[in-house]
Amino acid sequence: MDGRLHPSKAIVGSVNNYLAGKCIILAVTGSVAAYKSLDLARWLMRRGARVVFAASSAALELVGEKLLHWASGEPPITRLTGETEHILYVRGCDGLIVAPATLNTLVKASQGIADSLVPLLAVSMLGMGKPVVFVPAMHGNMASTPQYRRAISELQSYGALIVPPLIVEGIAKYPPVEVTGRVSAAFIARGRDLAGMKAVVTAGATREWIDPVRFISNPSSGRMGFEIAAELWARGASVTLIHGHVSGIVPHMVNRVHIGTTEEMRSAVENAIGDGIDIFVSTAAPADFAPAEKRSVKIKSGERLTLELEPTPKVVEAAVGKARRIILFAAETVQARDELLSRALEKMGKYGADITVANNVSGRDAGFGADKLDAIIIWSMGGGIFAEDVGKINKELLARRIIDTLLLIERGGEHG
After folding, report:
1. Which regions of the chain are under pLDDT 70?
2. What pLDDT score was predicted for residue 362?
3. Residue span of the structural domain in which 252 resides
4. 341-346 own/partner pairs: CB under 8 Å, 24+ apart
5. What is the pLDDT of residue 391?
6. What's the pLDDT score for residue 413?
7. CATH of the domain at 404
8. Closest to 187 measured CA to CA, from 403, 14, 42
9. Residue ending a domain, choose from 135, 159, 190
10. Residue 415 is assigned to a structural domain of this protein
């Protein structure tokens, strides 16, 4: 059967086209977490990728060859033949993800011991200068060994991306598929083009308390901040994510600071920035007003209540003059694009931002808590102001567009 006609291919590009045109080898090794890579394959395919499984003999004892074929719609690579698969597929594909990666695989790949399928694919891919991602998963005692630390260090020095495992109950676990896929996609698509940069990202909603059980807030989920943080980290930046109340999976591999109020967020930003950083991204939705007085006990229900509100400190002010590049989000409920643009430009000028994302949050299918944002990207470069109305766009794609625009500014307008 033609692989393009396989029923599983119906999902390709169903979420967005982040990986459109990309071929990714997804190598599975003998860890009990191998089953999670079936979901990872589907995650990648929904972003437009062609996924070809490769499986070690130990992995095939846990997930069968037919199941791998079904999940990706492509015949898996399970052995080396006269077709020299390690050359054929490495030449034809754009990246390799080894997930889960056992200690045995990590050590062999780091030392160039290419005596079996997966280490051979990894060494070949690295030798061709193509992106390789390792997702370690093993018992905690193995992840604590000097051999593990040495293998990780050496693979990173070769240019590989290591997605750190989640340490839970003494086990180095396979991270959430959404996070693993997200950072792997960004790395394979763009590489480490932000290496050496330091970034601070804010996300989510703050809460201003009226009494011990009631507060003023907004429906921000933090999703846009998560996407920006993951994009920055995968592309080489050191990232601190300062977040308030959020929903969804917080990227575990970045430095995380959880705060409650707007004042706490501003203080955390000041501490994280210190004497200066390269990039500050303000995606958070901090409350603009707080009760002038917080009641110490719960206010009795059923009574008429009048609140006096006072303005909260502006978080972005903590970055002005200390962040080399500032990226702001301007959430508005206006429908007219010219007014949306005008308000964003006003905010951009006030804080001297390099990029401002004007976004209309009045719709149900785009904005707070949604997968998409209705946005206009505005940037300042070479003394001029430029704008691109991207309309309703998936937040994963928007994160990449924003960071690509940042690099465009860094390079003085020259596309890399």
Report:
1. 1-4, 413-416
2. 83
3. 198-410
4. 341/376, 341/378, 341/387, 344/376, 344/378, 345/378, 345/385
5. 94
6. 63
7. 3.40.50.10300
8. 403
9. 190
10. no
